[in-house]
Design a protein that fits this description.
236 residues; alpha+beta; Type Iii Antifreeze Protein Isoform Hplc 12; five-stranded antiparallel β-sheet; 7 strands; rod-shaped
Length: 236
């Protein structure tokens, strides 16, 4: 029996369809292609977020109220704390040192965390933002308890009564539609007195007046009894 010769094997290099042996690096990349794709996607996302995120703003210390404070309160160290705010958000007239505010009196209520500025204190800062010729004029009213109705910014007509009965009905308007800067309601004597030129601030009303109004209001309580009436804050 005659055996047929064995078929000749074609070398792999001669078979164009044969797979080319892969290098170890290629095999590693093929096995990890999904992991590498996810990593590259995370890097791209991180770079995009970094480009879109604004740079961190410079921070500055500022003295703020440590709790809600009532208008007329005399500030103490325990009622103040230091907060850090973006430098461009710190209001003008704010202080970075709470000790500079201790002993001063608030012109109006302050919320916890609110920055304390000179405009919120009884003193020259009350005139912040007013016209250059505006004066802060104190006058003692005949009915001190009525000052409890007032808040800084309210508009009042300041009236003088020379009637023997003391009633405001026969009064003369000394200053119309002047804004209230501070009102010394009963029990309000204290730190404000030094700035107002009196040891007793009770019954004193401080208003922002033009020069012609200031001349009439100043010293009015020596000429008779001073009253005030609340007026509408809307346009006349």
């Amino acid at each position: 029996m005659t055996r047929s010769p064995a078929p000749k094997r074609t070398p792999a290099s001669a078979r164009p369809w044969a797979s080319v042996p892969r290098s170890p690096l290629r095999r590693f990349l093929d096995r990890r292609r999904r992991t590498l794709a996810a990593a590259l996607l995370c890097v791209a996302a991180g770079a995009a977020v970094h480009e879109l995120t604004p740079p961190t703003a410079a921070m500055a210390p500022v003295a703020v109220a440590a709790r809600d404070l009532a208008g007329g309160a005399t500030l103490s160290g325990g009622e103040l704390r230091v907060a850090r705010l973006p430098a461009d958000a710190v209001p003008q007239g704010a202080s970075s040192d709470p000790s500079r505010l201790v002993g001063q009196r608030l012109a109006g209520p302050v919320r916890s965390g609110e920055a304390i500025t000179d405009a919120g204190l009884v003193g020259p800062g009350l005139l912040a933002g007013t016209a250059a010729d505006t004066a802060a004029v104190p006058v003692r009213v005949a009915d001190p308890p009525s000052l409890q109705l007032l808040r800084p910014g309210q508009l009042v007509d300041v009236m003088l009564s020379t009637d023997a009965g003391g009633g405001p009905g026969a009064g003369t308007v000394l200053a119309a539609r002047v804004p209230v800067l501070w009102a010394g309601a009963p029990g309000g004597a204290g730190a404000a007195g030094a700035w107002l030129g009196s040891q007793d601030a009770e019954g004193l009303l401080v208003v922002a007046a033009r020069p012609d109004q200031a001349a009439k209001v100043a010293g009015a309580s020596a000429r008779g009894k001073v009253f005030f009436t609340l007026v509408d804050a809307g346009p006349r």
